[in-house]
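note to self: dont lose this again. the chain is below, predicted strucutre after it. 90 aa total, dont forget to put it in the shared folder this time
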Amino acid sequence: MTWGVASGDLAHKLNKTRKELEKGNRVQLVFAPKANQPVPNQALMEARINEILGKIAEFAREWMPRKFQSGVAIFYLKKLDSSSKPTEPS
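---
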C-alpha cells in the first residue's frame, strides 16, 4: 500500500487481511511511498501505522518488530488469540 491509500481501498485491504488471518495465515503489511511522492517522516509513518493497528486490534496483533527503511514500513501481523489481549510489540 502507499502512504496515501484512500480510506475505501484501505478498508478493502484490511478486510482481506482479516480473512487471511482467520485462515491462520500470518500477514505482512507493507507501506511504501508512491512514485514521485515525498517520503513521509518517521513520526508520520508511525502515526499512520498506529491508526491502522487501532482498526485491526480486535482481530490481529504484531508478532515481530516493525521495520522501517527508506520510507518503507513493514509490520507483521498474526491472528489475535482469543485468550490474549492486544499488546505493543517490543
